[in-house]
C-alpha cells in the first residue's frame, strides 16, 4: 500500500475545519500559553509551528483517527456501550487523552506539561469545542484533546527551537 502523506495532511486539516477548528485557532492557543515566556512571539510564528507539527505522521494519524471516531459516534455507527461513553464524553473513558499523547509524545515531556495545562484551563477554542460537544447529537470527545495536543506540541517546538 502506498501512503501519500500530503493527501492525508490535507484531509486532516479539512476534517479539523469541518469540525470548526482552523489552524489559526490552534496557533492562538499556542501564543496564549507561550507569550509570557517570549515577548516577541507572534501569531505567524505560532502558526508556522502548528503547520510543522502537522507534518508528522503520528500527528496526522491521531487527527484522522480521533475525528473519525467523533463523527461515527454522531452518525450512530458505533454500538453501545461505547456509543454512550463517547456521546456523553464520559470522564473515565480516557482513550481520547491517550490518543492525544501520541501527538505530544513526539516532543517529549515538555509537550505533556503543556497539554495538561491547556486541557485544564480550556484555553481559546478548546472551551468552545468543549461546550459544543455538550449539545445533543454532537460528539467532540476526541477533538478537544487533539486540538489541545497540537497546540501543546507547537508550544514545545518553540521551546526547543528558540
Ligand atoms: Mg476529550
Could you walk me through the main structural features you see in this protein, from its secondary elements to its overall organization?
By secondary structure, this protein is mainly α. It has a single domain (5-161), classed as YutG-like. 69% of the residues lie in helices and 0% in strands. The protein has helices spanning 5-18, 23-34, 43-53, 57-74, 82-87, 95-104, 109-121, 125-133, 143-161. The chain is globular, with a radius of gyration of 15 Å. The N and C termini lie far apart (38 Å). The structure holds magnesium ion. Magnesium ion (MG) is lined by residues 89, 96, 141, 144-145.
Tag the structure with descriptive keywords:
single chain, 162 residues, mainly alpha, YutG-like, 69% helix, binds magnesium ion
Amino acid at each position: 500500500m502506498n501512503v501519500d502523506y500530503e493527501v492525508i495532511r490535507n484531509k486532516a486539516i479539512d476534517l479539523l475545519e469541518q469540525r470548526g477548528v482552523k489552524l489559526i485557532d490552534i496557533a492562538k492557543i499556542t501564543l496564549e500559553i507561550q507569550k509570557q515566556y517570549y515577548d516577541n512571539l507572534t501569531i505567524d510564528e505560532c502558526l508556522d509551528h502548528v503547520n510543522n507539527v502537522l507534518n508528522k505522521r503520528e500527528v496526522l494519524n491521531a487527527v484522522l483517527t480521533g475525528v473519525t471516531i467523533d463523527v461515527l459516534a454522531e452518525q450512530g455507527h458505533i454500538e453501545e456501550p461505547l456509543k454512550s461513553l463517547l456521546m456523553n464524553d464520559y470522564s473515565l473513558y480516557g482513550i481520547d487523552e491517550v490518543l492525544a499523547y501520541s501527538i505530544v509524545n513526539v516532543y517529549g515531556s515538555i509537550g505533556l506539561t503543556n497539554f495538561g495545562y491547556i486541557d485544564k484551563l480550556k484555553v481559546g477554542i478548546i472551551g468552545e469545542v468543549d461546550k459544543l460537544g455538550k449539545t445533543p447529537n454532537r460528539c467532540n470527545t476526541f477533538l478537544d484533546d487533539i486540538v489541545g495536543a497540537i497546540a501543546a506540541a507547537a508550544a514545545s517546538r518553540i521551546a526547543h527551537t528558540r
